[in-house]
Amino acid sequence: MHRTQAHRMPPTLRRVRLTIAAIVVGALAGTLGLASALSATAATVDPGAWYVLVNRKSDKVLDVQGHATTDGSPLVQATRTDSTSQQFRLVAAGDGSYELLHRASGKVVDLWEWSTADGATFRLYRDLDGANQRFRLVDQSGYVRLVNQHSGKVVQVAGASTADGAAVVQGTDTKSYHQQWALVKVGSGTAPTSSAPPTTTPTTPPATGSWPSATGQQKVSSTIAVSGTFDGRLVRYYGISSGGQDESQPPMFQLSDGAVLKNVILGSGAGDGVHCTGTCTLQNVWWEDVEEDAATLKGSSPSQVMTVDGGGARSASDKVFQHNGPGTFVIKNFQATDIGKLYRSCGNCSKQYARTVVVQGVTVTVPAKSLVGINPNLGDRATLSGITVVGDTSRKVAICEEYRGVTSGEPTKVASGPSAACGYDPAAVVYR
Q1: Contact 307, 281 (CB under 8 A)
Q2: Is 360 inside any structural domain?
Q3: Which residues lie across from 305 on neighbouring strands?
Q4: Which of 62, 115, 390, 391 ranks highest by number of CB atoms within 10 Å?
C-alpha cells in the first residue's frame, strides 16, 4: 500500500503546523501581485511566502493536472497564470529539508509509492511527514534543484519537454536545465524572454565575480559555423541539445582556422559548446551551464593556438576546456565557478600529441577539483601564473595534475603539484 511506510508526526506538532498553514493561507488570500519579485535560494526561502516554481528549460511552472485537489493528483508543468493551483509554500521540516504545500488543496507534493526509479511521478497527497514528501534545495546559478529525501533523485520535467501538460517526475541528478527551478514569489515576472539584440557591441567585460546579462535569446537547431569574426553582442544562444553530460553532443559553434568568437553567452542546451578546428580566439565568451564541455581544441597542426581571453564558465560537472588536437591552449583573464576541471589534455585519445597549456590571470571559485590535467609522458607542458582560488579554505583544489596518457583504456594519475612539466609557484597562488 502507498502509505504503509509513512512516519506520522506527533498529533500536537501536526496540529500546530496545520494551524500555521491555515493562518498563512487566510492572510495571503487575494494578495497576488503584492508579493516580492525576488527569486529565492536555499538560504533565502521566505516561510510566509507563496511561490511559483519556474522550470529553467521550459519557462513553465509546476502545476497539478486539471487543477485537481484530490489525493493522487499528478503534477505537470503549465503556462504560468498564478492560479492557486500553481502556488506552493515551502514548509521547513526541521532537518534542512522542506515540504511543498499546495495552496489550492492544502496537500503536499508526494513521491508516489515511495519509488526510487527514474520516471516515478510526483502527486498530491495529505501530509504524513514521510521522507518521500521532503525535499532538499540545492542552489545552482540562481535556481534550485529539488532532491527528494527518500530517493535522492531530483524533480524534473519528463523528457526535458517544453510542452504544457508534460509530467513532472524524478530523475538522476545531472544538473540539466529541466531539473532546475526558480522559486519566484507570487506576483513577479517569469523567466527572461527573447528580445532583439542591441545595435552596438558591449566592449567592457564585467568585473571578476559578476556575470553579464543577456541582451536577447536565440534558439539554435544546428551547429553555427564561424569563419572570420562572429560578434554575438551578448545574445544568449541555447537549445541545440537537451542538456546533461551525454557524449557526442553537437557543438553550438564550430570555428574554422583563424576564426574569432566574441561577446557570446551559451545558455541551456549548449551541447559540446565550441569546437576549434585550428587556430582560434574566444573573447568575452560565457557559459552559463556547461554540459559535455565548454570548448574543445581539435585540429592537427602543432602550430595551432586556441586563445580564451576573458569570459567565464559555471556548473561544469566534469571539464570546462578539452584539448584533443596538438598545439597550444591559452586561458587568460577567465573565471570559473562550480566545476570539475578547468582544463584537461586528452588522456585516452586514439591519436595522441604533445600539448601545451598556458593559464594566466584565472579565478576559480569552489566547488572545484582541479585546474589543469596534463600527460607529461606524451610531452605535455603547463605554465600557470596569476591563479586565484576562492572559497578553498582547506586548499584541496589541485592546481596541476599529471597523468600517464594512453591511446586506449583509462589514463592513470601519477602526480600532483609543481614539477618540470607543471610549471608554477605554489607560493604565488592566491587563496581568498
Answers
A1: yes
A2: yes
A3: 328
A4: 62
